[in-house]
Amino acid sequence: MEEQMLVADKIMPDELRMRSNARQTPVFNQPAEHTATNGKLPLARTQQTVRQLLEPVQGGLRLVEQRMKTVESSVFAPLADAFVELIGSGGKRLRPALALLTAQLEQPISDWEVQPELISLAAAVEMLHTATLVHDDVIDGALLRRGAPTLNASWSQGATVLAGDHMFARAAHFAAETGSSQVIHIFSDTLQIIVDGEMRQLFSRNQYGQEWENYYQRIYAKTASLFSAASEAAGVLVGFPPPFVQQLKEFGYHFGMAFQIMDDILDFTGDDNSLGKPAGSDLRQGTLTLPFLHYLRQQSDPQSLVERLTGARQAAEEGDEALLNQAVAEVVTAIRRSDAIDAARSGAVDFLHRAVANLSTFPDSRSKESLIGLCGFVVQRSS
Q1: Dist CA 307 CA 313 (whole Å)
Q2: How far apart are CA 45 and CA 370, in angstroms?
Q3: Please, which residues have CB within 8 angstroms of residue 272's CB and are 6 or more apart in sequence?
Q4: I need a surface site. Which of 65, 169, 216, 224 has the fewest CB within 10 A?
Q5: CA torsion sign, 22 to 376 to 264 to 328?
Q6: How far apart are CA 283 and CA 327, in angstroms?
């Protein structure tokens, strides 16, 4: 048990490791009833809507939106149209919001027009995220995302990949606009990490007996790395001292890890309407997430479950998907009835408490309250 408790910390990149041994090792793999928080996050701002929490940076986010929708006239017309449609499809814009909120932890920014570097950074972060979603849809063969048709549904795979490439290039352009070589290094390093995470996920699909460490490595690379980069780069641009930048980097890491764990939980607890896809889609694709790993560990004969899923996957590859659909549906139901969801949620809560602790260095402000409130939102969200 002690070895499993250290798994999530083990994969933390060296530059992100906690420097203080006084901090308690989080019990990421313990069932919820063994955790003091018991799945509840005691934060005062969790009842606010996301819109209310982002109020301190709404002006900046509007400029980010405008910046992202700007398309040069020389761009191929169908690509330009698809580009604007993808950007305009909405989303919570949490990644650029984190960048803008962390940028004003010391001093509020009243006029975002005079902060073009921060706007470019936030646009780079969101554009990079959008580009990864476009490529994800190609990799997964997804025709719907959040209930809406993907670009992959109407374009060929080749054209969709090129559209994603264009977005990656735009994201790099925005990062260069910050004029900071340090930010550009953060951006390029993060892109490499994200690709590494995608490769890990692809090569570990259908490996039902994989180690927990693989899961934490994947969610750091695919999700937490970009949240961490957004917070760190914002601190660099506003000139925070290195120790403060380090705290923001760690905040983004812990926030992002929790965000992805909750996303993985929703894949089991959500419905088709809230998810925009069938529950258990990750498991159906062979992507193993924390709720499943907890459930597998709770089984008296985990090998029999692994063999059943493996056999169902092989049958699906031969053209008979009925066994796989039935197996996934039964596992989803079983996980919902087990302690696996609470155990996974407790892991997310532990990460969020660490994220809040990273903010203790900074003075009280509306932006700090919003960041703490967003931690509450993450663990309570339903979509």
Answers
A1: 10
A2: 8
A3: 278, 279
A4: 169
A5: positive
A6: 10
Contact 64, 96 (CB under 8 A): yes
- Alpha-carbon gap, residue 379 to 376, rounded angstroms: 6
Reduced to 3 states (helix: H, G, I; strand: E, B; else coil), residue 148 is strand
Tokens coding 227: 């949240």
Q: Quote the tokens at residue 94.
A: 């949490």
Of 374, 347, 348, the closest CA to residue 359 belongs to 374
Beta strand residue intervals within the chain, DSSP E: 144-145, 148-149
176-to-68, 104, 224 alpha-carbon distances in Å: 14, 21, 22
d(CA 147, CA 156): 20
Structure tokens at 188: 């390029």
> Residue 235: CB partners within 8 Å, gap ≥ 6?
102, 103, 244, 245, 248, 249
264 CA to centre of own chain: 10
**Sequential pLDDT tens for the chain (383 residues):** 344 445 666 666 665 654 333 323 233 233 233 233 333 444 444 567 888 999 999 999 999 999 998 877 788 888 888 888 887 776 789 999 999 999 999 999 989 998 999 999 999 999 999 999 999 888 887 777 777 788 888 888 898 899 899 999 999 999 999 999 999 999 999 999 999 999 988 888 888 777 788 899 999 999 999 999 999 999 999 999 999 999 999 999 999 999 999 999 999 998 766 666 778 888 888 889 999 999 999 988 888 888 888 888 888 888 888 988 999 999 999 999 999 999 999 999 999 999 999 999 999 999 999 999 999 999 887 66
Model confidence, pTM: 0.87
**Cα 234 from chain centroid (whole Å):** 18
Fold of the 2-17+37-380 domain: Farnesyl Diphosphate Synthase (1.10.600)
Instruction: Tell me the domain boundaries of the chain.
Output: 2-17+37-380
Amino acid occupying residue 253: Y
State the CB neighbour count (10 A cutoff) for residue 306: 15
Distance between CA atoms of residues 130 and 169, nearest Å: 12
